[in-house]
Q: What sequence folds into this?
């Protein structure tokens, strides 16, 4: 499977714990995005990388959230001191510069439940 | 006001029917437009890009009206497998390449 891969698929945690998600983009895609989706809503943008550089962060990305893409390949999203409001589907997407209007391809997501 | 607005539905239509979804966006400088499809508890998948001249892909037709800031999706001869949520998506301008999604319109095609 050469699509966007996310791990884990599901994560259940207790409030106050830290969690980390991983995203492996489509090979050679230089752009990587994180989105969050809650029930009944469309995905909301969190942050975006071009290669290893984090170029944009949404206001939704509080200081408890941090994302990295150290080698310009896979990315991690960490949430510290989780809150119940963090429960959502976290989606990763990737795209290739200059190809077909920068169409973004999504992974299957990591569903986070904070108890 | 949300940047991308859609009627959430649900739209319940019989097989074979024609159904149309509409979407409005608030940022007149938006440059790229898409329809994504999302099945229950799955990731969004690109259905089609939307071009100024309008474009068609089989049973699906997308249109863009920049003057009215309005996007539409028409599905002809609906199939049971078309049941899904359809997300109107606008490329945010002046802020990198993030996509701005509507809440989605739910479609249920019944036998």
A:
């Amino acid at each position: 499977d050469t699509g966007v891969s996310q791990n884990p698929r599901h994560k259940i945690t207790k409030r106050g714990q830290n969690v980390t998600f991983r995203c492996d983009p489509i090979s050679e895609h230089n752009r990587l995005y994180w989105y969050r989706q809650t029930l009944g809503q469309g995905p909301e943008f969190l942050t975006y990388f071009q290669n290893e550089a984090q170029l944009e962060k949404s206001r939704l990305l509080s200081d408890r959230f941090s994302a990295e893409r150290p080698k310009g390949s896979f990315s991690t999203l960490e949430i510290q001191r989780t809150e119940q409001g963090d429960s959502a589907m976290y989606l990763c997407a990737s795209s290739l510069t200059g190809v077909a209007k920068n169409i973004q391809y999504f992974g299957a997501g990591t569903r986070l439940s904070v108890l | 006001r949300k940047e991308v607005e859609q009627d959430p539905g649900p739209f319940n239509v019989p097989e074979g029917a024609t159904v149309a979804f509409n979407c409005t966006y608030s940022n007149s400088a938006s440059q790229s437009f898409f329809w994504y499809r999302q099945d229950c508890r799955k990731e969004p998948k690109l259905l089609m890009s939307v071009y100024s001249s309008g474009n068609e892909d089989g049973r699906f037709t997308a249109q863009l009206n920049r003057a009215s800031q309005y996007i539409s999706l028409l599905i002809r001869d609906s199939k049971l497998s078309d049941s899904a949520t359809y997300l109107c998506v606008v490329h945010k301008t002046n802020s990198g390449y993030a996509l701005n999604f509507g809440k989605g319109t739910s479609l249920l095609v019944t036998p």
Chain B has no helices and eleven strands. The two ends of chain B are 37 Å apart (CA to CA). Chain B touches chain A through 24 residues (CB under 8 Å).
